[in-house]
Amino acid sequence: MEENFPESLEAVREKYGKFIERKYLRQLADLARKEKKTIVSTNGTFDLMHPGHIVGITEAKKYPQNKRKIPEGEIILIVLVNSDKSVRSYKKINPVHSEKERLEAVASLPAVDFVCLMQDTDPVNLLELIRSDFHVKGSEYDSMDEDLKIPGPVEQDIVEKYGGEMVFIARPTDSISSGKIRKSQKITNN
Questions:
Q1: Rounded to two decimals, what is the model's pTM?
Q2: Tens of pLDDT along 28-65?
Q3: CA 64 to CA 142: how far, in whole Å?
Q4: 111: left (phi over 0), alpha (psi -120 to 50) or beta
Q5: 158 Cβ partners below 8 Å, 6+ apart?
Q6: What is the CATH number of domain 9-189?
Q7: Other CB atoms closer than 10 Å to residue 6's CB: what's the count?
Q8: What ranges make up the beta strands (E) of the chain?
């Protein structure tokens, strides 16, 4: 028997806290729109949480307020966190922290309203469900970063398909942890 999804964002938080399963993302987004909320999303691995992650997440939540004058209480931030398997497939590295630990770390940030585990290597399928008003990435994703092999914003087409805006936020240049992990794993394996 299918369980009933809560009928308000407050009830969703009471039932699930900040942790939303993929199967409820569309319902969560529809509920947010029904409550006239602006939906902001971002995604990433969020391993070795550092100031760049925190700045990126905090600024993602603030973007509609700062740039569009949307009141803070009318914005929800959904963060999509790569699963361990998707990190290994996408970045060719093993995450230092488990997906559970990374979900909990991201959820602990005050700016985050909801987190969802992302099994795919990119967020396109989940963004199809969410249909964000704004999808935010670090500015390092605005072009190909050959050193870290970070692909450009594959999600831009799906975000814009539903009328959303792709946003790039500057982060500290030395805050990209994937390269640091890759380098340490290379040293360890030699």
A1: 0.86
A2: 999 999 999 999 999 999 988 888 889 899 999 999 99
A3: 19
A4: alpha
A5: 124, 127, 128
A6: 3.40.50.620
A7: 17
A8: 38-44, 75-82, 114-118, 134-138, 165-169
